[in-house]
Design brief:
3 domains; Rev_trsase/Diguanyl_cyclase; Alpha-Beta Plaits; 6-stranded mixed sheet; 8-stranded mixed barrel; cyclic-guanylate-specific phosphodiesterase activity; alpha/beta; EAL domain-containing protein; GGDEF_dom; Cyclic-di-GMP_PDE-like
């Protein structure tokens, strides 16, 4: 084949094509390559193909291209086979330096150094003997390079090669799916144009360090590796990868605050096809992120049980989004031991699911928070509660106070105070009757800002209470700064008052603390006369629990209030 025909053939290839010499210097590039690189026109004269090197029968080296841009080549294995290989993306162009006419074609890279058995030619060129008189360096290498980092596969080709290993060769292994965190913040601080090259170098480093791996970049902030080995081997590699992030992600000599979440899936345990393995590894990473699993490291091995739980959570959340009208409220009365009368109710939300039955808030409220539904659920509960209790009064004719639990997410929402004000106005509900409870187990990191937003509601008479006091994250600063009017002692401490001195000490000190700060105390979960007696001795006169009344649906609550419920007031608290 005349050289000009060969050049025309190479120039017609749609992919960018570069020719490098043994020193990595660009000797020729196709029109498409020059378009990509924005290079000048093809130099003249065009370099010519070499004569055979005359090394027939002597050992040669397999050469794997690290990067054609830098012209750096790595000797990876000695062999008697007379071939050279340059690896770019997922294809290898093989040329016989001891006689171009003998072998010239494409072969796939594998997890191990290429052997004679593994070479598979694709669309081989023929008639290259006439190119011997070309004049180009006899060690020239022809390499097909894409814009992706070298040895970094596209997702489709990654899946194809993994499938070949799993199906044709019955290889046991797995996929490590690594997702970088905080990239949005880092891009904003330094610019994506400076961070993207770091990610490319990271990909190249993975390809170099893990020669036994297939590597792809399915997303801009994610990498996937297929490796042979069992679960322990893949976990070791995952830990090693995360440690290397510190050294790879540096800019201007400083480490960037990049961390990673890693998911691992195993073949054939979890799946036998690449696309499924990739999906399960990504799911494992996401499950670890949602569950905040970081006990053994930033990696999480796929678990069918965990996956099923997350699927159920997703389905339940979808049902909740579509059927908010199925939320039902119950009201548990609160009593004052001084007067012996009911003074308020706590709103308890339940979900009457048509298939699963009654679902408690501990099951669906965290899902509403996780999937961004908590504001909608909270607004629904507040509207329903105001409408239901607007006209209810205590047995002595005073308006009944209403306590509604509010999640930390709602408190942090800048629009929350406006929604509360609008709901109060919409239902003509007096602000001083409303008590907003925040569970102490809820983190409120920006407490000062939250209190500032709630100031308008507090000034109008809305009261704040700290629910489940003593069981969560609240510090004394939390108690001091929230401007709460009431502490609610959790039933875990009340339940064992009569036989656990530690619980008695905790409750006693909580009551003293609240009294010193001018706050009321309400004890939850009171069930026995002895618990009541001890609370009275400690100075607590607001109570709630099965000893006095169970939660009631609205019709039952109205009927109960009409009977003017009354408990025997405590003479000691009345000063008698």
């Amino acid at each position: 084949m005349p050289l000009d025909i060969l050049i025309k053939l190479l120039s017609s290839i749609e992919e960018p094509l570069w020719i490098y010499d043994r020193f990595g210097q660009l000797a020729w590039s196709s029109p498409r390559a020059r378009q990509v690189d924005n290079q000048p026109e093809l130099p003249s004269p065009v370099p010519r193909m070499p004569e055979p090197c005359g090394l027939s029968g002597q050992p040669n080296f397999w050469l794997v291209g690290i990067t054609g841009r830098l012209g750096d080549w790595l000797l990876v294995q000695q062999t008697n086979l007379p071939w050279r290989i340059a690896v770019f993306d997922d294809e290898q162009l093989i040329a016989n330096t001891c006689g171009w006419q003998e072998l010239f074609g494409l072969a796939r890279p594998r997890l191990e150094p290429v052997s004679e058995r593994r070479v598979r030619l694709k669309a081989p060129f023929s008639g290259l003997a006439e190119a011997r008189a070309s004049g180009l360096d006899d060690k020239a290498l022809i390499a097909l390079r894409r814009l992706q980092p070298i040895n970094l596969l596209s997702r489709d080709r990654f899946n194809a090669q993994v499938d070949e290993l799993l199906i044709e060769e019955a290889t046991d292994g797995g996929i490590i799916y690594l997702s970088l965190t905080h990239l949005e913040i880092i891009n904003s601080a330094h610019g994506a144009e400076r961070i993207d090259p770091l990610l490319e170098r990271m990909a190249e480093s993975m390809s170099l360090q893990y020669r036994d791996a297939l590597v792809c970049r399915p997303l801009g902030n994610a990498f996937a590796l297929f490796l042979k080995g069992d679960e322990a081997a893949l976990i070791a590699r995952a830990s090693e990868l995360c440690e290397r992030l510190v050294t790879l992600m540096r800019l201007d000599g400083k480490m960037l605050p990049v961390t990673a979440r890693v998911g691992i899936s195993l073949a054939p345990l979890h799946a036998r096809r690449a696309y499924r393995l990739m999906h399960l590894a990504e799911l494992a990473m996401l499950h670890g992120e949602h569950d905040d699993i970081d006990v053994c490291g930033p990696w999480h091995v796929f678990s069918p049980g965990a996956h099923m739980r997350h699927l159920n959570d997703y389905r339940l959340t979808s049902d909740l989004r579509e059927h908010l009208e199925e939320l039902d409220l119950a009201f548990q009365p609160q009593f004052d031991l001084v007067s012996g009368q009911a003074v308020g109710v706590e709103v308890l939300v339940r979900w009457d699911h048509p298939e699963l039955g009654t679902i408690g808030p501990g099951r669906f409220i965290p899902l509403a928070e996780q999937y961004g539904l908590i504001g909608t659920v909270g607004a629904r509960v507040m509207d329903t509660a105001f409408l239901a209790t607007r006209d209810l009064v205590t047995p002595d004719g005073k308006p009944l106070s209403v306590a509604i639990n509010v999640s930390a997410q709602e408190f942090r929402d800048p629009g929350f105070p406006v929604r509360v004000s609008e709901a109060l106005a919409r239902h003509d509900f007096a602000p001083e009757r409303l008590e907003l409870e925040i569970t102490e187990s809820s983190r409120v990191p920006d407490l000062d800002r939250v209190v500032e937003r709630l100031t308008g509601l507090i000034d109008r008479g809305v009261r704040l209470a700290i629910d489940d006091f003593g069981t969560g994250f609240a510090s004394l600063l939390y108690v001091r700064d929230l401007r709460a009017c009431r502490l609610k002692i959790d039933q875990q401490f009340v339940r064992c008052l009569d036989h656990d001195s530690r619980d008695r000490a905790i409750v006693s000190h909580a009551i003293s603390l609240a009294d010193s700060l001018g706050m009321e105390v309400l004890a939850e979960g009171v069930e026995t006369a002895e618990q009541e007696r001890l609370l009275i001795e400690m100075g607590c006169h607001l109570v709630q629990g099965f000893r006095y009344a169970r939660p009631k649906r609205l019709p039952e609550l109205i009927e109960w209030l009409n009977r003017k419920p009354y408990i025997r007031p405590c003479a000691e608290l009345r000063g008698e």
